[in-house]
Amino acid sequence: MRDDIRRTATPKDHLINEIIDIEWNMFDKVNNIGGRAGCQDDGWTFYVNRYSQFAIYNVDVLSMYREDLAEAQMQGRNLITEKYAYMMEFTDKANYDANLKAYMPVPSEEKIDLIEKILRILVMKEAEFAEMYPGISGNSRPITGVNKMDVSFMVYTIGELKTYSERTLKGMYGALEELIAKGVSPSYLIHRNTVEFYGYEDLDDAENKILLGRV
Q: Which stretches within 34-149 are classed as H helix?
């Protein structure tokens, strides 16, 4: 992972970097059916996407997820591999049922309930963001749908949330509820973080330049 792209201004940044380092190591070890994917050698994009997502959460939530990763390492589990396996339940169900389902941790009813609550918030806010910034959204994953070649935001999010512990999911849900109560969209924050990495002044600057580039 390149050091020149790391954010290091706060203790929270250092915690996020620890998480990303562990995830990157796990991502590097994911075995794809069709061979190694190009994105597994693209540390810059990986860092941008993961940092932008994690930065919306507080230190408590990040610490919970850091514990999830540590526990997975002790158990010899790769949470990134599990995430992609859970996604295949939607994109390649026959393969999932035949070859993967029996090996995957089964979420509890409480965990499924938390995932559904978080998913509703994130999908709703992503859809609202797409209406406000169609140019930026057009360069992102489709929000919903099932397609093996173009995994949607919804499917990706379900796969990822299933790898988190109930403890972490409770923390995430609470943090998202706090943002919503303040009138702050998590999707707005994530996309704002992302465009700043790409050198745009803000979301409006990115949206205008993206739309102009399509003319």
A: 43-54, 59-75, 79-91, 93-95, 109-132, 134-138
CB contact at 8 A, 151 and 143: no
> Cα–Cα distance between 77 and 69 in angstroms, integer?
9
Cα separation of 132 and 151, whole Å? Answer: 22
Residues with Cβ within 8 Å of 105's Cβ and at least 6 positions away in sequence, in order, are: 82
pTM above 0.85, yes or no: yes
Helices (H), 133-199: 134-138, 153-161, 166-181, 186-197
Whole-number pLDDT of residue 215: 33
The candidate with the shortest Cα–Cα distance to 89, out of 30, 151, 164, is: 151
Provide mean pLDDT across the span 105-134.
97
Whether 119 contacts 176, CB under 8 Å: no
Which residues have CB under 8 Å from 194's CB, separation 6+? 48, 49, 52
- What is the mean predicted confidence (pLDDT) over 180-194? 98
- Per-residue pLDDT, averaged over 208-213, amounts to 91
Query: Who has greater pLDDT, 160 or 3?
Result: 160
Q: Which of 206, 175, 181 is nearest to 192 (CA)?
A: 206
Sort 141 into a burial class: Cβ within 10 Å, 0-12 / 13-18 / 19+: middle
Task: Kindly report the number of other CB atoms within 10 A of residue 103's CB atom.
Answer: 8
